[in-house]
Every structure is written in C-alpha cells, then in structure tokens.
Design goal:
This protein is of the alpha/beta class and 334 residues long. Helix content is 34%, strand content 30%. The structure holds adenosine-5'-triphosphate. GO terms for molecular function: ATP binding.
Length: 334
Amino acid sequence: MIKIDNLSKIFFSNKDKLTAVNNVNLNIKKGEIFGIIGLSGAGKSTLIRCLNRLEEPTKGKIFIDGIDLTALDKESLRKERKEIGMIFQHFNLLSQKTVYENIAFPLQLEKMDAEKIHNRVNELLEYVDLKDKKNSYPSQLSGGQKQRVAIARAIANNPKILLSDEGTSALDPKTTKSILELLKKIRDELNITIVMITHQMEVVKEICDRVAIMEDGQVVEENTVENLFREPKTKIAQAFISSLQGNIEEEIINPNDFKGKLIRLSFLGDSAKKPIVSKIIRSFNIDVNILSGNINKLQSTSVGHLILELIGEDEEINKALSFLENEDVHVEVI
Ligand SMILES: Nc1ncnc2c1ncn2[C@@H]1O[C@H](COP(=O)(O)OP(=O)(O)OP(=O)(O)O)[C@@H](O)[C@H]1O
C-alpha cells in the first residue's frame, strides 16, 4: 500500500550537507501497524515527514496505492494528503479552540455542512472516549486526553493512513498503553494503516506487526516483530531489545570466562513452554549452567532467550545440540 523507493533526504545548510535519510526502501501493507525505530538523529522524523511531503524528498519516490506522491502538483497533493492523518509527540492542538472545535477544524476545511460536522465530531468524541471534554480547552486536558483529541482530528476525514511521529513519547507508561490500545482499535475497526516512529521498543513490542530499524539515515534491519525478537541481526536491534525492562544485557557474558560450551537458545510460542533444560540434563550426560534468560510477551506469542553453559564431553554436547534443534529451538553457539 505504501511503497518507498530509494528515498533520500539531504539537508543543505551553508556549505554543509547532511544526509538525514539515505536510500530507504520499504513496503508497508494495508492494515499493517508498521514501526520505525531508531536512536535520536537516525532520520525517523524526516522519513515519516517525507511520507506526506511535509518534507520534500531529495531523491526517490513514494507510492500510496500506486499513486506517486512525489510527482503530484500542489492541488493533487492537497487531495491526497486528506488520506493521510498525522499525530505528533506534542499533540499540536490549537490552544485557542475547544476540543470540539479542534476536531471540527479539518472538516470545516473540507467545507462539510454544519449538521454533518456536528454529527461527525460527536461520533469521534464518543470513539476516543472524550464526550465529557468537548467544551474544554487543550490546557485543561492531560497528555493522554490531548493525544486522543489529536487522534480524533487526524481520523476525522477517514484517512487511509495514520502517521504517528513519537505519538506516545511524551506520555507515562499507563497512558501510553491506553493510546496504543486506541491506535490498535483504529487499525482493527477502521482498517487504517498505521506507520509509527518511536525510540521505545515497548511500543514496537506492544502494537507493531513489522518494524524497520534506522541508523544513520538507513534502514539496517526490517522484520516481523516476532522474528526481530527471536533473532535480532544487528547490534542496534540487540541493544533495543536488551533495553527493555527486565531484559539482561548479554554483553556481560564473555565465553572466555567459562570452560564449557556457551549456547544461546531462542524459542517462539509453544516451544517456550517446553521443559527443555531439564530434558537435556536427564537425556545426556552433561551439566547445564543457566547464565541468563528472558521472555518477552509479544502481541500474539512469546519469544524467549536462554544462555546456557553446557559442560561435558563433546560427543554428549553435540547430541544435546541436535536434540534442541529438533525441538524447534534456534541454537547459536556463542
Ligand atoms: N530541517 C533540517 N535542517 C537540517 N538538518 C536537519 C533538519 N531536520 C533534521 N535534520 C537533521 O537530520 C538528522 C535526522 O533527524 P531526524 O529528526 O529525522 O531524526 P530522528 O531519528 O527523528 O531523531 P529524533 O528522535 O531526535 O527526532 C539529524 O542529524 C538532524 O539534525
């Protein structure tokens, strides 16, 4: 549905040249919640702002349902932009207008008649659970309530796509959860494709179907959330996963400090429930030392990791490794 083709954005200031987005290619499917994660300065905001041409790409193309957004003139772009709602970290509400007026604003721009606007705004207020706040001003609302208003405003014209630029970064964990639930409801019920940039792995874990990791303007890794958690390939993906609360940094384990063989097991879904450690101890003549372990509960499944030291004869260890591979567990010798 969204096809990003060799997209680059270069900022020129004085004699300096900064490549904020460097040759990015992505395909985002209809109805997907697609996350883009990266550290500060990685180019996430610039990339997402190119998707509705708030930022003009320097090179490359963006197709939305086959329409090349980069080729549109001003008037066609204005029409196409109606299909793309956006929310921001700091909400960007109109402070002089009430909640009702903020949500009505994009509908007035479309010259919708007054009665229709009235009905639509009330429907949206109900949808985002803010009926009782319709006459309040943004300054009278909590962060979560402000983001609900921003979301109602962003979906008022029934867009196909919703872009979120760090939409939960200014919120506490509980409020973040409720906003993520609202976004999920919007995807599930309204079939709106959601592209969200974030620096929080918690957000990706909670809500995204697929994720791209950006570093220095480039997409360095792209995968389903399950597979990313199962086998992160790049150092930065591993660091993001390690940064999740309760996860143990693996770097602290140095194989040279151990006399046995170190292995890292990754397991997904039902294989996480099998008593594999006790099985290998009982079935083979080896000792097992558990060095670290974690389990991440994703939306529809769980992904676990264990780092074990296997102590014993090579032959017995190799038998244990073959056994593990047959148990649908990914084994990596460290
Ligand atoms: N208008 C601009 N002019 C010049 N440089 C810019 C401009 N906007 C962004 N940059 C630079 O482009 C790079 C990418 O910035 P961007 O805001 O896209 O990153 P980000 O991953 O969203 O980071 P953050 O999470 O901190 O916003 C940074 O080095 C930034 O300084």
